[in-house]
Amino acid sequence: MEKQIKKIIGVDIGGTTIKFALMDTQGKIEKKWSIPTNISEKGKFIPNEICSSIRSSINKDTLVEIKGIGIGVPGAISSDGEIVVQAVNLDWEQIPLKKMITHKLGMDACLLNDANAAALGEMWRGAAHGRENLLFVTLGTGVGGGIILNGRVLNGCHSAGGEIGHIPIRSDENRLCGCGGRNCLETFASANGLVLSMRKKLELLGGSWTEITPPIIFEKAAQNDEAAKEVLNEFVTVLAQALAGIMNTIDVEEIIIGGGLSEAGAYLLDPLKEKLEKYVFPQIRNHFSLKKALLGNDAGIYGAAYSYLLKKAV
Amino acid sequence: MEKQIKKIIGVDIGGTTIKFALMDTQGKIEKKWSIPTNISEKGKFIPNEICSSIRSSINKDTLVEIKGIGIGVPGAISSDGEIVVQAVNLDWEQIPLKKMITHKLGMDACLLNDANAAALGEMWRGAAHGRENLLFVTLGTGVGGGIILNGRVLNGCHSAGGEIGHIPIRSDENRLCGCGGRNCLETFASANGLVLSMRKKLELLGGSWTEITPPIIFEKAAQNDEAAKEVLNEFVTVLAQALAGIMNTIDVEEIIIGGGLSEAGAYLLDPLKEKLEKYVFPQIRNHFSLKKALLGNDAGIYGAAYSYLLKKAV
């Protein structure tokens, strides 16, 4: 009989740091640490450095109790969960990370996309606790998404499940997206998109601010600055229409908003909810919730660890 | 031990006719028939008439071999599959159809939304045979959708899964949708939407045609009529952007196009595929297929019957 799982490790590989957490199966964190992401030589040292850091940070008696590790990766994971198909920020292509980790650490590993990990983390220990069907949205430099249906991540047939930042938006503008496309949702509904919209608005009005950042835009709008209010209204409209389109497609019970822009709290969430109610299908109206994410930067390590528990529960 | 299932019945309740098929578990149809839909007195006679029609159309020896029946309904089905929450065309609300049918016929029943049934039918015996992840789109009077993930229908938390006809479209126009919303996808990408766009275009140009129908618009465009070409180009663009948004969200391997407009064949599908490739996320590009539906009006009876087999296979 397989020994009961007592402790698990969650890892979140980011472009600048790799975060680690040792926790029990209830998500109680015993130890949390991080190391810088070594992206030199096409990120070839990353797998070894993850293993070394785990070996040196956790004592031997505890290590033997750990059966598995979940790893969130900023990129696409193959359908079988074995390979990182591509992770642009790490300069990775076709890296058999699962095999590398299990081989070196002698424990089972589980890979998933970082946005999907964050979605799973919010479901397990965060804002969506108790839900099984949800859409997690990060509004940061870009726009990311993770979809959970019946308690499981929707990874998709080409690891593009939840890539909602790249939903095409109809617009007279011609904003270039990092993916090579034009007018993707993230060129409007991210922090960068918001700042660009504000700058364009000010140029149009012949005005100028010494600095344009999302917090300043929200602050000015709260002070009744007409230009800031108009830009935010348009920002929320674009986002609400896109999210309503997703709701009318996958019909989940909850939307969780994370990422830097979610720090605006009610200033963002209240008007967003109002517009969402307008655009969702009648059957959904007044029957879903919209919440701010709870776990911040820790969502990924929680979700990565939980993905291993889920895998074992199958 | 439960007796092996030998024969099943698929039923597709439409606004004007109810279609029936008796088939084996491979989908070979032994008998197919239909009756008019009796929508008098809030459709209260429909459940009885379905049962009577089955009893009178199938001989007794065969009836005992039938263990179950699948029924496609033009409306929303509760998550537990027991109740028709609402079906506007039948004037139904909160009808416990499953219990009514099982009670009267003495066989197990399975309910599902009609667009979901058609999606399942195309997967089982139609254009998507062999696939397990697909988006089925009907372009008819309205725009309907059905999503299959891992071989199962995505019904959603409020029976609104796949209601893609109601994705909000950004537009300077203000088209009223049957759902009460404005500028839903189906106000542009349906037969009615296409005709309206053509009429508006002709008004703008000061021209007029004696008759405007989708086949006439496709024919004129093939004859190089500039106005018809422009309207079709815009029609395909709106549809491609919406479908690409869905693909970037759920990332399935195949899109099946059914409904009256799909009769345009390559005149619709070729430009649609071209634009889709432009708007989908790079990982998906060149890795999905777009096909015309194969089963026409029979998709629903196949899918309804198959939903019963799926339920039994759980």
SSE topology:
Two copies of one chain form a homodimer.
Chain A: E1 7-13, E2 17-24, E3 29-36, H1 40-43, H2 46-57, H3 60-63, E4 66-73, E5 76-77, E6 84-87, E7 92-95, H4 97-105, E8 108-113, H5 114-125, E9 134-139, E10 143-149, E11 152-153, H6 186-189, H7 191-205, H8 214-222, H9 226-250, E12 254-258, H10 266-279, E13 289-292, H11 299-313
Parallel strand pairs in A: 1-4, 4-8, 9-12, 12-13
Antiparallel strand pairs in A: 1-2, 2-3, 5-6, 6-7, 9-10, 10-11
Helix pairs in contact in A: 2-4, 5-11, 7-9, 8-9, 9-10
In terms of DSSP E residues, the strand content of chain A is 15-25%
- In angstroms, what is the radius of gyration of chain A? 20 Å
The total of beta strands of chain A comes to: 13
Oligomer: homodimer
Annotation field: number of helices of chain A: 11
Architecture overview:
Chains A, B: Pfam families: ROK. Chains A, B: It comes from Candidatus Enterococcus murrayae. Chains A, B: This is ROK family protein. Chains A, B: Belongs to the ROK (NagC/XylR) family. Chains A, B: InterPro entries: ATPase_NBD (IPR043129), ROK (IPR000600), ROK_cs (IPR049874). 2 copies of one chain form a homodimer. With 314 residues, the first copy, chain A, is α/β, with parallel strands linked by helices. Chain A has 2 domains: 7-120 and 298-313, ATPase, nucleotide binding domain (Nucleotidyltransferase, domain 5), CATH 3.30.420; 131-293, Nucleotidyltransferase, domain 5 (2-Layer Sandwich), CATH 3.30.420.40. Chain A is 39% helix and 23% strand. Chain A contains 11 helices and 13 strands. Chain A has helices at 40-43, 46-57, 60-63, 97-105, 114-125, 186-189, 191-205, 214-222, 226-250, 266-279, 299-313; strands at residues 7-13, 17-24, 29-36, 66-73, 76-77, 84-87, 92-95, 108-113, 134-139, 143-149, 152-153, 254-258, 289-292. Chain A has a 5-stranded mixed β-sheet, with helices on both faces. A 5-stranded mixed β-sheet of chain A has the order 11-10-9-12-13. In chain A, a hairpin with a 3-residue loop joins strand 1 and strand 2. In chain A, helix 5 (114-125) packs across helix 11 (299-313) and helix 8 packs across helix 9. The longest helix of chain A has 25 residues, at 226-250. The first copy, chain A, starts with 6 loop residues before the first strand and ends with a helix. The mean pLDDT of chain A is 95. At the A-B interface, strand 10 and helix 9 of A face strand 10 and helix 9 of B.
